[in-house]
């Protein structure tokens, strides 16, 4: 039995990853980050509903209660300046901000694995989010382990299972459909808007439109 921290946003990919990890006999410690995202309330609701549904229907699986940390990223002081200037730098290395908090939770709990929900579809966005690139992640893992080595601590393993298996979003969804018939993936939240009902206009909604969920 492996212990693993998973960043859980309540969206499709991270939810599929939580279920995949549980099915593969891992003890899962989910982490939800309140980064003051506009859809915070609805992401949180999705996680709560999904958590309850997994517990009710698959009580034998080793799902631990999710933790929630509050972070501010990017810094409020810079956000407006970034937006005025050049949009793409607003969230520069945002995934690293999220990941570092998963690493902190893992170290605190003596957990040596962190799984990331990246899918093959994400790789085309590497130009905007370079920190989802597999080569970057490998170097990040080495960087963290260098720090741990200096501290005489055990190394940790940062792993993106879906990328390693060459899975697209639709493969992850198919896995859940085949293995977790009692989990309704419609409960997941993708839309970025602050409205309760998905806007059908944002990028997340448009991607979701083309999937069989
Ligand atoms: Zn939307």
Structural features, described:
The protein is α/β, with parallel strands linked by helices. 45% of the residues lie in helices and 12% in strands. The protein has 8 helices and 5 strands. A 5-stranded parallel sheet has the order 3-2-1-4-5. The longest helix is centred in the first third of the chain and has 18 residues, at 40-57. The protein binds zinc ion. Zinc ion (ZN) is lined by residues 191-193, 198-199, 201-202, 204-205. Zinc ion is lined by residues 191-193, 198-199, 201-202, 204-205.
Task: Using brief descriptors, characterize the structure shown.
binds zinc ion, alpha/beta
Name the shape in a single word. globular
- N-to-C order of helices and strands: EHEHEHHEHEHHH
The radius of gyration is 17 Å
The biggest sheet, with number of strands, parallel, antiparallel or mixed sense and barrel status, is: 5 strands, parallel
Ligands bound here?
Answer: zinc ion
Measured distance between first and last alpha carbons:
30 Å
Tell me the helix content: 40-55%
> Using DSSP, what is the number of strands?
5
Q: Strand portion, in percent?
A: 5-15%
Please state the average pLDDT score. 95
Structural class: alpha/beta
Count of DSSP helices?
Answer: 8
Poorly predicted parts: none
Strand order of the largest sheet: 3-2-1-4-5
Assembly state here?
single chain
């Amino acid at each position: 039995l492996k212990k693993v921290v998973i960043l859980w946003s309540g969206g499709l990919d991270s939810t599929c990853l939580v279920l995949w990890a549980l099915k593969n006999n891992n003890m899962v410690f989910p982490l939800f980050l309140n980064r003051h995202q506009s859809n915070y309330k609805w992401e949180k609701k999705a996680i709560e509903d999904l958590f309850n549904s997994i517990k009710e229907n698959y009580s034998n699986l080793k799902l631990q209660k999710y933790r929630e940390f509050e972070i501010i990223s990017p810094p409020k002081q810079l956000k407006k300046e970034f937006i005025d200037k050049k949009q793409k730098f607003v969230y520069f290395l945002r995934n690293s901000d999220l990941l570092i908090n998963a690493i902190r939770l893992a170290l605190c709990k003596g957990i040596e694995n962190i799984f990331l929900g990246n899918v093959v579809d994400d790789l085309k966005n590497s130009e905007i989010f370079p920190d989802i690139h597999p080569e970057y992640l490998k170097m990040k893992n080495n960087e963290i382990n260098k720090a741990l080595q200096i501290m005489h601590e055990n190394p940790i393993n940062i792993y993106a299972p879906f990328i390693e298996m060459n899975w697209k979003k639709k493969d992850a969804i198919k896995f859940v459909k085949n293995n977790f018939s009692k989990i309704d993936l419609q409960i997941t939240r993708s839309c970025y808007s602050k409205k309760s009902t998905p806007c059908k206009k944002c990028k997340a909604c448009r991607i979701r439109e083309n999937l069989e969920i």
